[in-house]
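# step 3/5: fold
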Amino acid sequence: MTRFVSALVAGLATLAVGAAGAQAAETLDTVKERGELSCGVTTGLAGFSIPDQSGAWSGLDADFCRAVAAAVLGDASKVRFVPLTAKERFTALQSGEIDVLSRVTTWTFTRDTSLGLNFVGTTFYDGQGFMVNKDLGVSSATELDGASICVGAGTTTELNLADYFRIQGMDYNPVVFAAISETAQGFESGRCDVLTSDQSQLYAIRSKLEDPSSAVVLPEVISKEPLGPVVRQGDDEWFNIVKWVLFAQLNAEELGVTSDNIEEMKGSDNPSIKRLVGTEGDMGEKLGLSADWAAQIIAQVGNYGEMFERNVGEDSPLEIARGLNALWTDGGIQYAPPIR
């Protein structure tokens, strides 16, 4: 009887996994039938995903959502943005509420192996830091013993913070908030001495303070935070599509293909460019997309460098240098497999 029960349980588990996989494998068809991509983003973070007064979303993560829509639907505007807190984001993806999560999410071992999710790549290489009120006179994170620190709930930031203070032999008082906007408000209202988050978020939050010059980001970077989009496991077709959307944008920048010259580049004799823009080969067919899938991304959203600069780069209010996010040919670590 025990063997029978065990076999029955194992069989039911296999059926459940198979059913989940079958459901996951329908993502491309579901998006096409719906005529809209459902994309999870932050509740509002300047430079990455934030709505304006009319509800129009902008930012690096929001633009990546548009790039996926351009590739799949031929129209970058066909996106329904779903604002999610850090605690809500994975459940929303697992449940099928969203098709893609593009929300300053760090790629970690546990998230990659135990949540039923796949990270498709890194759209922004980041690291955790600290921002303090300039009036505190603090110039290093090693001077923060006993400080009250605002931190987001359900993030890798909490664990990194605990690890750093334990290693340094210091104490701190965590002040935890559910949403990024609440964390920023807590810092500005004086509920904490310090705000900790990814450095990109610190610069974004500082830019929105009533007096940005009142806060300073300390020099210490205490973690690796590769941020990138996420999809459900069990759907290799969709995983490949979203992954190659990012790779197409990186390859386009490396090849010098931009939103300004895309029409001209369609007549290029360069084999790499011809495969990218769809005038040679069957790359689109291999993904279940149109031949011009990548050309649609570039024309409507731009290559990776264009997307980076207008949202978080030195031409944006955040003024973040490319740094690690520069192409490998320019001293960074952004690198994509070739389209061939």
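# step 4/5: annotate
The mean pLDDT is 92.
# step 5/5: archive (pending)
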